[in-house]
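anyone seen this seq b4? input:
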Amino acid sequence: MKIILKNGYVYDPINNINGEVMDIFIKDGKIVNEFREKDAKVIDCKGKVVMPGAIDIHSHIAGGKVNTGRILRPEDHRRFVIARKFKNGKFFRSGAGFSVPSTRITGYLYAKMGYTMAFTPALPPLMARHTHEELSSIPIIDKGALTLMGNNWFVMKYLKAGEIEKCAAFAAWLLKAVKGYAIKVVNPGGGEAWGWGKNVTSLEDRVPYFDITPKEIIEGLMKVNEMLKLPHSEHLHTINLGRVGNYETTIKTMKLARGLENRDRHVLQITHAQFHSYGGESWKSFESKAYEVAKAVNKMKNVAIDVGFVTLDPTTTMTADGPMEYYLSSLTHLKWTNKDIELETAPGVTPYNYSPKSAVSSVQWAVGLELALLVEDPWRVMLTTDHPNGGPFIRYPRIIAWLMSRKYREDFMKNMNKAVEKRAIISSLDREYDLYEIAIITRASQARALGLKEKGHLGVGADADVAVYDINPEELNTAEYEKIERAFSNAYLTIKSGEIVVKEGEVVNEFYGKTYYVDVEVEEELMQEVERDLDYYFKRYYSVNLANYPVSLDYLTNPTKIERKIERVKVIK
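predicted toks r here
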C-alpha cells in the first residue's frame, strides 16, 4: 500500500522536526522519499498532529507472573471487557482485564493510543517459551523481552571470581538461547537472598553463599553490557524499591555508572524511578524526594530513567522482586502469590489500590510527575507506568495531559489527600510539556534507548509506524486538558508497517508485528569454556535440564534479529 499523509503538523524529534507542516510518504511498510499521488491513498491531515508510532520500553504484558496476575484476580476481568465484533468484514477477538488485559486486547488497546511497540521487561529464562507464546498472541504491535540476570547463579559465580569475560559470554549465550533483547537486573542479590528468607537493603550487603554484593552485580553487568555492545543499556530495578527513604540508595546506584560511556545511548537505565524516589522516616512521614533524584539525573549524563507514574487506580502489582511483594502484601493484608523460578528470580503478585484519598498514594502520584518535570533533558526520560504496577498502560493519555497542563494537575489535586501539598512540590511546578517533548518521551527517547534506528522517527528508511492525533497545535489550549486526553486516547489514525490499523479511534485491521531479539557471537574458545560450565553445573545443581532453555524461532512471530559480533571480548577497567 502507498499512503500519503498530507498537511499534518509533524513532530519528529530524532530528525529535529518540531511542528512543521509537511507530507509523509509511505510505501512497502517504510517511510520513503516523495512520489506521485497516482495509485496512492491520500489522507488529509490538516489541523492534526503526526508523530512516529509510540513505544513502551517497560510494560508487563506477557510471561509467567502476568498470567498469574490474571488468575489471581478474576475481579479485575469484570472492570474492562471488549466484546468480539466485526469491523469492515474483519473478525476481532474478545478479551477482558483492566490492569492485566488479555493478550489479544493488549494489542488493540495499544494501537488505539497510537502505540506500535512494547517490551515486556522481566523474562525469567526458564519461562521464555511461555513468554514468547504470549507475546506472539498480541496483535499489531512489535515487541521484545528483557532477560533477567541479576540473580542468576552463573552471573554471580563469574563476577565473584572476577571472570568478567566468561560472564559476558554467558550473557551472550543466555540472550541467544531465550531470544531476549537486553540485560534486566531486578533487586540484584535480593532475589537469591529471598530463597533463604532474606533480602538485601544496602549496595554493600553480601548475598548468601555467593558472597557478592548488589554493587558488584550492577557494576559487573554494566561492563558486560558494554563489552557485548548490546543495543540497550543495563535495565536496572535497583534494591529497596518502594521503601521509605530509598532515594539515597537510588542516587548511590546511579553513581556506579561513572566512568562508562557510550556515544549512542546512556549506559544505565533506572527503571520505574518513581518507586525509588521516596523520603521520610516512616510511612507517616513519607515524602517525595523527586527533586534530589532528578538533580542527580541532571548531573549523570550517561543515566536515564523511565518514570513509572502512579495513575491512582486499583491495579495488580507484579515484579521479580519477591521480597518487595511480600512486604507490600504484609502492609495491605491482601492476597498474594510468589514462586521461585529455578535459581533465577522470585516473582510476586499482589493487588493494590492507589486511592487519591490516601496520603501515600497522593504523594506517589506527585513523585512521578515531579521527576518528569524536574529532569531537564527529556531525552533521558521515558513515559511508563511500570504497567500494571503504577497503573494500567491505558492511562498514558491521562499522564500526557497531566504533563501538558498545569491546570489539570491543579484541578486533579483538589480531590486528593492534602499530604500532596505538604510532602511534595508538585503544586509549585509551572513547567508544561509541549508536543515536541511528548514525542520525545513516548517515542524518540525510547527508540534511542533501545538502539532501534528504524523506530521512533519519520525519516526516510524508518518503519512506517505512524500515529495521527486530532489536535491542532495552533489552537491548543492546555487548560482544555480533556481534549488532550481524549485525542491521545483515540488516535485519528494508527499506521503499523504501512497498514492502517486504527481509524478514528477504532481498530479496523489486525495482523502480527515483529518480535525483536539479540544474537551476540563471541570468540569460540571462550564460549566453549562457558558451555562446559553449563553442562557441569546443570547436571549437579539444577532440577531441570539445560535443554529446557533454548527457544526456537517457531515461538516468535516474525522474528527480527539484532546481530552483534564480538571478535574478542575485552575487559573494561
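The chain has a mean pLDDT of 95. The longest helix spans residues 524-541. kinda curious what u guys think
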